[in-house]
Amino acid sequence: MKAIAVTPGKKHSAQVVEARRPSVADVPDGRGVLVKVLRVGVDGTDREINDAQYGRAPAGEPYLILGHENFGQVEAVGPAVTELAPGDFVVATVRRPGRSLYDAIGTQDMTTDDVYLERGINLLHGFLSEHYVDSADHVVAVPRGAREVGVLLEPLTVVEKGIAQAYEIQRRLRVWHPRRAAVLGAGTIGLLATLVLRLRGFDVTTFGKAPRPNRNASLVEALGARYVITSETSVPDASRRDGAYDLVLEASGFSPLVFDGMEALAKNGVLVLSSVTGGERRIEVDADRLNLGFVLGNKVMVGTVNANREYFEQGVRDLAHAESAHPGWLASLLTHPVKGLDRVSELFDKLNGGARDAIKVYCEVAAS
């Protein structure tokens, strides 16, 4: 079967390869699920792996099949699978259990292992292929009514986890009723965060760098949230003008905004970090004042990355909710399709900025 793979450690090596077609028998205990891949989203992780910044092939393999944002349709199941059937639409989770205690209880997204097992990222093949097989334990059903937007489930789970973790942490307060939220960044994750927070009833301000008019600002405002341009109003200035935020979700990819988020956070507030940033950027901050505000204000900062099955299942519920509350909104994020696995250059050109106003670039692997 065809797949898009890289040679780990070799820059810009993404190419079409001929890979072995998997079988349900590849999974022990009769729990295999064979999936025909329909769509795969690409993001900065795929770009960075193709830039040879990280990523390792499975043991004994010369290449790593890319792709972690997946959506497909079940073709066959093993004899011990009762929860899925041929024809079902599905999304697979990304990280697989390692050796830590957290992996053993199904929370591999919280692993203390130094080595991650992640499909399409590290030591496990991904989903940019015609088929994949996995255990039913890691495959989540998507209702037919959400089939057009199912490829957004994996990035949505990063948001689901971050918000759920904020509430879990604040159980310590006995009573926590957050009302105001800020989202830093208006890319895919920032837009999905704006959506979920609005579905939860938050008053949301989303900060972006692009001046109006732009597609992302229109999408934010279509949800009843505010769009603020950071070059005109900083995050701390907006919080002083409108009131501090009970929950801040940082999704900008620009690490200095983390400190703006700290400053704009209300007492008993939670700052959720979702950006994975590299480099060696340095800035000056008012460290004593920020520290004092966190200590005296009982504030919390927590990171969110990857997600376990719990957050995928919550994401499915929110996909359905969003389709009902805001019909067509999620589909409008799917801005730049690339038809077929053979068009590798086009896929990465769009991912690398060659597509104007792109929100989500994805590969149409096959039709359902």
Automatic annotation (TrEMBL):
Alcohol dehydrogenase-like N-terminal domain segment(s): 32-143
Protein keywords: Metal-binding, Oxidoreductase, Zinc
Domain Glucose dehydrogenase C-terminal: residue ranges: 148-353
Cofactor(s) annotated in UniProt: Zn(2+)
Any Pfam family matching the protein: Glu_dehyd_C
InterPro entries for this protein: ADH-like_N, ADH_Zn_CS, Glu_dehyd_C, GroES-like_sf, NAD(P)-bd_dom_sf
Name listed for the protein in its UniProt record: Glucose dehydrogenase
Organism: Anaeromyxobacter oryzae
Biological classification of the source: Bacteria, Pseudomonadati, Myxococcota, Myxococcia, Myxococcales
